[in-house]
Amino acid sequence: MSRPIVATINRAALRQNLAVARQAAPHSRLWSVVKANAYGHGIERVWKSLAETDGFALLDLEEAILLRDRGCRKPILLLEGFFHPNDIELLDRYRLTTSVHSNWQIKALAEAKLSAPLDIYLKMNSGMNRLGFQSEQFHNAWQKLRSLVNVGEMTLMAHFAEAESAEGIVEPMQRINQAAQGLDCARSLANSAATLWHPQTHHNWVRPGIILYGASPSGQWQDIASSGLQPVMSLNTEIIGIQQLAAGAAVGYGARYRAAGEQRIGVVACGYADGYPRHAPTGTPILVDGTLTRTVGAISMDMITVDLTPCPQAGIGSKVELWGNNVKIDDVAASFGTVGYELMCALARRVPVVVE
Ligand SMILES: *Cc1c(COP(=O)(O)O)cnc(C)c1O
């Protein structure tokens, strides 16, 4: 028998989450964001379950080509555009829509020899100050691109730094409106948070990512608990050892946890080499034999130790859920200051994945 850890990908949940995203923005077309190997879920595994989408958005040219090679004929958007002028040849061959965020990309497009024009997402900087043109420079960049024979349809693209809150989109929307003035352009602005919570941002195309995978854009499960979204990934394993501690006995590397009194401890087959973060502290929620309990002591490379006090019936072979339908990935992440995004993206290659 192999090690008991397994990640399960629930395709029905993926389809359901896409339907929830669509209902939230019924008048917009929808890019399903599948960057970073579909947020750790495996782009090859999930893309067909997202067949109802209008297009796929991602970052890596390799992932875009993989989708085309598997027979995907929907629009594919490169969220950060091309990273080198030589890539344009592949955008042309595979018919990819590209974001454009810098002047060097405009120049490269002007000089490229294409078989047909490419559709462009011109990125404006909404105030996040990562990629894109300032609203004052946007017109100029737009006109330059518009005059190129190599450019087909054009869309204004922007991204929000704080779409979890109503105030977070006020200034960015002002900047975007300023940039779009007099252009009569299609727009794509909304990530998951804006798709769920800010209809005024929806416009022509929304770009949800995290909600497709059933986690919260705010990092708080409560914020999406009644939305109909369902976790897509479950990470499950088993107890492989039991220790009966005497008062004062320590557990794991660095003796970071000591039993106050007698205590039963379970040893779980999962560690940081599986993608469970080493900095998860004592107290991180975990489900053992259907009962919510907590981790104790340091996370090892291949093992986690848990408190069996609430589940005295648990023993070797008892089922453990690290995250999934019962223990929400958002709650696990929140207990050590990160977000579900990071945990799902970090699922290690050594973890076997089952699709159901
Ligand atoms: C990742 C990303 C998204 C999706 O963000 P979520 O918060 O996962 O919905 C949308 N747009 C851009 C430009 C992105 O990089």
UniProtKB/TrEMBL annotation:
GO terms for biological process: D-alanine biosynthetic process. InterPro entries: Ala_racemase (IPR000821), Ala_racemase/Decarboxylase_C (IPR009006), Ala_racemase_C (IPR011079), Ala_racemase_N (IPR001608), Ala_racemase_pyridoxalP-BS (IPR020622), PLP-binding_barrel (IPR029066). Keywords: Isomerase, Pyridoxal phosphate. Residues 232-356 form the Alanine racemase C-terminal domain. It holds the Pfam family Ala_racemase_C. GO terms for cellular component: cytosol. Substrate binds at residues 130, 301. Its cofactor is pyridoxal 5'-phosphate. It is an enzyme of class 5 (isomerase). One of its GO terms (molecular function) is alanine racemase activity. The active site is at 35 (proton acceptor), 253 (proton acceptor). The modification N6-(pyridoxal phosphate)lysine is found at residue 35. Its EC number is 5.1.1.1. Belongs to the alanine racemase family. NCBIfam families: alr, PRK03646.1. Catalyzes the interconversion of L-alanine and D-alanine. May also act on other amino acids. This is Alanine racemase. It comes from Candidatus Erwinia dacicola.
